[in-house]
From TrEMBL:
This is UDP-N-acetylglucosamine 2-epimerase (Non-hydrolyzing). Residues 29-350 form the UDP-N-acetylglucosamine 2-epimerase domain. The lineage of its organism: Bacteria, Pseudomonadati, Pseudomonadota, Betaproteobacteria, Burkholderiales. It comes from Neopusillimonas maritima. The keyword Kinase does not apply. The keyword Isomerase applies. Belongs to the UDP-N-acetylglucosamine 2-epimerase family. PANTHER family: UDP-N-ACETYLGLUCOSAMINE 2-EPIMERASE (PTHR43174). Keywords: Isomerase. Signal peptide: none annotated. It holds the Pfam family Epimerase_2. It comes from the Bacteria.
Amino acid sequence: MLIMRVLGARPQFMQEVVFRRAVDARGHRELMVHTGQHYDDKMSRIFFEELGIPQADINLEIGSNSHGIQTGLMLSKLDGLISEYRPDVVVVDGDTNSTLAGALCAAKLNVPVVHVEAGLRSYDRRMPEEINRVVADHLSTLLCAPTRTAIGNLEKEGISENVHLTGDLMFDCFKYFVRNADESIMSALSLAKSEYALATVHRAENTNDISRFEQILKGLSLLPLPVILPAHPRILSNLNLVIDRLSAKNIRVIEPVSYLEMLALELNAKCILTDSGGVQREAYFACVPSVVLRDTTEWIEQVDLGWSVLSGARSQAILEAYSACMNSSKQYVENVYGDGDAASKVVSLMEAMAL
Ligand code: UD1
Ligand code: UDP
């Protein structure tokens, strides 16, 4: 099988490791197309180097732009590529503009689409990610759901054919790399286990609205411990301004870190506060309580199990959610996000469908 995988954003890079292993193990060929959606060294190259991911076969070098222009530029380049290579299948994952472009372009050219991480819903159409995942799901030939909740969401939209529970590739990654977590970041930042909180903020709904962004940082500033904040580049322009205005002395902003450094920061944190889907799940994998800095989450399982508390963006609510998740009773269920073999299940399903 010739598999074209279209990727472009940070969480899709680590998943490439486990996906590629599964593809190689079954003797298939992968053509990796990096859209260039994430392009800073600390948003892209660092992961390829650290995790030994081979260079993308093709980099579209699209870069940042408005959603329509960014997606349109990807489409116009993918159109020629898919026509030229005629892959047996195009694989996309998650909910980024790269996911949308890969799925739409392949579907228009009658190439089967596999959506990994299918069926997640926030039911909030103001989120660009929600639009991307709904469209990708409805265009896909094979839908690989990470959770039972995701399968239920698809059923509600009338999609039940070729939907399979595979588990979450992010959990595959965690299991594969957790022993290699780069603990040297702890001494480099003079951090001790359980003496700090780790935070990330990058969602458009939290960063584009400056008053909401300020409320979130104020919430972090109210916590009774230092907060380490590896900053996604989209927040840099407002970040120092807001931190100065709040005189938030406990917030320590650092550059984005590598995946293995991030794993160490997560494993050693007392609590994780995040609007990231990946970081939220990693908090659960690492058995660290988390506050989800959003009004909704697609990963409801860990809220139900007591590990995560949704806070929204009001500062006081963030403080309350911190106390709630630190004090809640928690249950760790081993296979909530699969067995750590999601990637090989995805490849087996593609074979079984003779895509
Ligand atoms: C995107 C995805 C989101 C995913 C996240 C993973 C969409 C709509 N959103 O969000 O689903 O959770 O990736 O990290 O696709 N920027 C840089 N350098 C970079 C990349 C981005 O400076 O290497 C800045 C640019 O100003 C850009 C902004 O960050 O406009 C946002 O980047 P973008 O890729 O559009 O969205 P993310 O927030 O990264
Ligand atoms: N991550 C990282 N360095 C950072 C911040 C995040 O390696 O400085 C990793 C994190 O461990 C997770 C992934 O990036 O594996 C999540 O990406 P992000 O939060 O950008 O996107 P989302 O998961 O919300 O789509």
